[in-house]
Specification:
Layout lengths: L6 H18 L8 E2 L7 E2 L7 E4 L1 H4 L8 H4 L5 E4 L8 E4 L14 E4 L2 E2 L19 E6 L12 E6 L10 E7 L3 E11 L5 E11 L9 E15 L2 E15 L6 H10 L13 E16 L4 E17 L2 E21 L5 E22 L2 E4 L2 E5 L4 E23 L5 E20 L2 E4 L4 E4 L5 E21 L4 E11 L4 H6 L7 E12 L3 E13 L2 E6 L2 E6 L2 E15 L7 E17 L1 E4 L5 E4 L11 E10 L4 E10 L2 E2 L7 E2 L2 E13 L2 E8 L7 E6 L5 E5 L4 E9 L1
Parallel strand pairs: 6-9
Antiparallel strand pairs: 1-2, 3-8, 4-5, 6-7, 8-9, 10-11, 10-43, 11-12, 12-13, 13-14, 14-15, 15-16, 16-17, 17-18, 18-21, 19-20, 21-22, 22-25, 23-24, 25-26, 26-27, 27-28, 28-31, 29-30, 31-32, 32-35, 33-34, 35-36, 36-39, 37-38, 39-40, 40-43, 41-42
Length: about 700
């Protein structure tokens, strides 16, 4: 193609742009480039949907112990960790609410490669949070990346192998035995080929809660190869070994004791040794080939992981899951109406989990059949053995039309065919949630199988119109379908796939000293999957429909220009979420199952009001400071709306740093005012409440040397 820059030239342009954006940051924000919404590079103000970008300037001011540190304060995204480690629970516009732990219904990607399973579960164990250049959040259904996910897509973009400005050594230590070690070194030849080696170690005793320590060790090797002026190949091979203890929830009495002392000494479950230990090998390869009239972008990836996961009632031992897949993308610029662009491609992925086993706990104290307490997480009697295979076959198309400089139209869809196959052997012994112990029923075991397939159609049409150099209007109409995950289907094989339809309008503003994003949306979900908690067990049902209405605002402004030395920028983020069951008959278990009409009730755990304020200060001497305070409004504890939790107000974090030459030292304080609060409160159908506490104040000191 005449005039098309070579990958080497493109690389120079990207690096120059990054350097320029850093230089311009003192005068105000530059509009960041994103790829997650459309698969094509585009400044965020032109994307006709709600998207949030957490760039390097923000990431450098965070501890980055987990992804929560970066995403806190993003309107429409509720994210917390109940263990204080790398595990997170995330809800995006209500999607992910049903998850007991982890991240569901939201597609997470790393450099364009999905790290979310076909049944929508995402494991964060192998994400090196110190090796992140940018995080992009696309909210709502219809995302071109999001196979089988209604909550949108979150893409984690790692530091480029071609960017030697990110080479560094970082050492951090803090309270509760927290340690953070990170090193990155890259090498580049005269021809532009590159290698980068990254190693990270994270550890914390977290002894403010019992059984709450974790440790993670990671090693990554990236390569970049430029065989000619029109081809670029990047690969990454990483290894992770992670150990995570899970402390469990508390009763109300235990939570009140925590509020008095700042420590959790016990949980509300007889299972005292829950954990998730994992070992992961991850490989991905990304090729960009400029073939003149189009660009070919194939991705090939492989992921092998194993884990040891003691939970309530059983110990899951997964010896090895093999995941491999490819994403074949073609980008075709053309001029149907103007400077237009067509993106299309196909996806294939297969997950194989063979020989997964579940054991009873060996070391327990009982009273009759009831388990009173576990003494270790050593496995005992084999309860279950399972083989599982999941497949995804999909294709996507998106046309971007730009008739003039002001108007942009995106129209496209994804279609995915997802199959879930399970073959299970179970013994005559199983954990009975109602009795709270192991029971043996002769002849109740044997072989069973599950075989379900889902066809998911996710179309989207978006329009943006540039009013002038500062303001852009947008509208977005989208649909997404959500595949039930395997454990839900085990609970209820008749579950249907939910369908979410959303309409969104908004206004984006960009200027040298201020910026903002404002949007409102209406979303309806048919057959939404609801989790019902009864006696510690989770049962899943389809609700008839739910209605979701929301308003989100995110903005910042530079203040006191010329009146104080340096730059001071104030920010405010807010989300209003009104989510109700339009039609839902909840089956309450216990004795004989009974139906209860919950139509018109609010969805639990989702606060109507969430807001966050922040201030960023930069002094010419190299001193920087960032303070952020987050508030989570009250919410109902259950589907019946019998009780509310008040949430929390102004939980504050502070980071102060000083940089001179290649040296940077920073002090980070989480929960600055040492508030005693709960990050999650639930109430089951029997009326029993459970509390997960927020972490107390913690201080961490870090030193970074940039090579």
């Amino acid at each position: 193609m005449i005039g098309t820059p070579t990958p080497k030239k493109q690389l120079c342009v990207v690096i120059s742009a990054l350097i320029s954006s850093q230089a311009l940051a003192v005068d105000g924000p530059t509009d960041v480039i994103t790829v997650t919404a459309t698969r094509a590079e585009r400044v965020s103000s032109e994307v006709p949907e709600s998207i949030a970008v957490i760039d390097q300037s923000r990431l450098a001011q965070e501890r980055m112990g987990n992804i929560n540190d970066a995403l806190r304060g993003t309107p429409g995204v509720l994210v917390e960790s109940t263990s204080g480690a790398y595990s997170s629970r995330m809800i995006v516009r209500g999607a992910g609410l049903k998850a007991q732990y982890g991240i569901r219904e939201v597609m997470l990607l790393r450099d364009g490669v999905p790290i979310t399973d076909p049944d929508s579960f995402t494991r964060m164990d192998f994400i090196d949070t110190q090796d992140i250049e940018q995080i992009e959040v696309s909210k709502g259904p219809g995302n071109i990346y999001a196979a089988g996910s209604t909550g949108g897509a979150i893409q984690i973009i790692s530091k480029s192998v071609f960017d030697d400005r990110r080479d560094q050594l970082r050492i951090g230590a803090g309270e509760f035995g927290t340690k953070n070690l990170h090193a990155r070194k890259s090498y580049m030849s005269e021809a532009g080929n590159a290698v980068a080696i990254t190693a990270s170690h994270r550890k914390s005793d977290n002894n403010w809660r019992r059984w709450n320590d974790f440790e993670s060790n990671q090693l990554s090797i990236k390569t970049g190869y430029l065989p000619n002026d029109y081809t670029e190949l990047e690969t990454e091979l990483s290894y992770t070994k992670a150990q995570l203890n899970l402390p469990g929830d508390m009763t109300q009495e235990q939570f009140e004791a925590f509020r008095q002392t700042g420590k959790q000494t016990d949980n509300n479950s007889p299972f005292k040794h829950n954990a998730r230990d994992s070992e992961i090998v991850f490989f991905n390869s990304r090729l960009n080939m400029d073939l003149g009239s189009f660009t070919f972008k194939p991705r090939l990836y492989f992921n092998h992981w194993s884990h040891f996961h003691p939970v309530t009632g059983g110990i899951n031992d997964t010896p090895g899951v093999n995941i491999w897949g490819t994403d074949l993308e073609v980008e075709v610029p053309h001029s149907l109406l103007g400077q237009d662009n067509l993106v299309m491609g196909m996806t294939y992925r297969q997950d194989r989990n063979l020989g997964a086993k579940k054991y009873a706990y060996q070391d327990i104290v009982t009273a009759g059949p009831k388990v009173i307490r576990t003494l270790s997480n050593d496995p005992g009697e084999l309860l279950e053995e399972q083989d599982e295979k999941n497949n995804v076959v999909g294709f996507f198309v998106q046309e971007s039309l730009q008739p003039n400089e002001k108007l942009l139209i995106d129209a496209g869809f994804r279609f995915d065919h997802i199959t879930i196959e399970q073959n299970t052997w179970s013994s005559d012994t199983r954990y009975n949630y109602g009795m709270g112990g192991y029971v043996t029923v002769p002849g109740s075991g044997g072989y069973s199988s599950l075989n379900r397939s889902f066809d998911l159609f996710s179309p989207r049409v978006g329009i943006s119109y540039k009013l002038n150099d500062q303001f852009t209007l947008f509208g977005n109409l989208a649909q997404g379908e959500q595949v039930p995950f395997a454990s839900e289907l085990e609970s209820n094989p008749d579950l249907r796939s939910p369908t979410s339809r959303s309409f969104e309008v908004g206004l984006k503003g960009r200027a040298a000293s201020w910026e903002f994003d404002l949007n409102a949306y209406i979303s309806s979900v048919d057959d939404e999957i609801i989790r019902v908690r009864t006696n510690g067990e989770s049962i899943y049902q389809n609700a008839g429909s739910t209605d979701k209405k929301g308003l989100e605002f995110s903005g910042s402004k530079q203040v006191l220009q010329g009146k104080i030395p340096g730059k001071l920028r104030l920010g405010f983020n807010y989300a209003y979420s009104d989510y109700t069951y339009d039609e839902f008959s909840e089956i309450v278990y216990g004795g004989r199952p009974t139906n209860h009409d919950r139509s018109g009730n609010q969805l639990p755990y989702i606060p109507k009001h969430y807001y966050s304020i922040n201030a960023n200060y930069e002094h010419p001497s190299g001193i920087k400071a960032r303070v952020q305070a987050d508030s989570w409004g009250d919410y109902y504890l259950d589907n019946a709306n019998t009780e509310k939790y008040k949430g929390y107000d102004f939980v504050t974090s502070l980071n102060v740093s000083y940089a001179t030459g290649p040296h940077d030292i920073s002090l980070n304080i989480q929960n600055l005012f040492d508030k005693r609060y709960a990050v999650e409160v639930e109430k089951d159908t029997s009326g029993e409440k459970s509390f997960s506490p927020g972490a107390p104040r913690s201080i961490m000191l870090s030193y970074r040397y940039q090579f």
